[in-house]
Design brief:
Blueprint: E1 5-7, E2 11-15, H1 21-28, H2 44-58, E3 65-72, E4 81-88, E5 92-99, H3 108-123, E6 128-133, H4 138-146, E7 150-161, E8 164-174
Parallel strand pairs: 5-6
Antiparallel strand pairs: 1-2, 2-3, 3-4, 4-5, 6-8, 7-8
Length: about 180
């Protein structure tokens, strides 16, 4: 297994395991938590599949996807967020994250983006990391800005979700621009 762990000030990113499905469902099954994501709320069965694919990706060689749980240092089973880093050609990756709604507004999103950048830049040797967000998700825009990412532009009709096409706003950061806050 190609296991990773990344530690921040309050959170750490760790591999998912089969027992994490209820914690992931608390996020991916919540209509509020998924409102701006590229998918609709997921069922328990769909979340089981997400967790199974995350575990399988941790065993892949070469590994090109990291779906990790964000957990507090003092509560390693309390999933407060789910993250994804997908490696692309040219030493780049796209990232995404979702937090439990009771964790919103506490700085956990910014720390999560920093942890994903630490994984990408310091452990995986990437050059560029980017993220796409819903134009209506202004909280995510602020989170990405606070983590040092720049807004790059818009992809029109990028995602088909909830019966309609939606644009995405792109953000990115380069390895020499990122500074660890720890």
């Amino acid at each position: 297994m190609n296991s990773v762990e990344v530690r921040g000030k309050r959170l750490r990113l760790r591999e998912l395991d089969h027992g994490d499905a209820p914690g992931v469902l608390a996020i991916y099954g919540d209509p509020d938590a998924t409102r701006h994501l590229s998918f609709e709320p997921r069922s328990a069965e769909e979340v089981d599949g997400v967790v199974a694919r995350a575990i399988a990706s941790a065993h892949a060689e070469p590994r090109d996807e990291y779906v990790l749980a964000a957990v507090p240092h003092d509560a390693p089973d309390d999933i407060v967020g789910v993250t994804r880093l997908a490696i692309e050609p040219q030493l780049a990756a796209t990232i995404g994250f979702a937090l439990r709604t009771d964790m919103w507004g506490k700085g956990f999103g910014t720390e999560t983006v920093h942890l994903l950048c630490a994984l990408g830049f310091t452990q995986l040797g990437l050059h560029r990391i980017w993220a796409a967000r819903s134009p209506l998700n202004t909280a995510s825009a602020e989170t990405l800005r606070k983590a040092g990412m720049s807004e790059d532009g818009r992809i029109r009709d990028h995602v088909y979700v909830r019966g309609a096409w939606r644009d995405s706003i792109l953000h990115s950061i380069l390895e020499h621009e990122w500074r660890s806050p720890w």
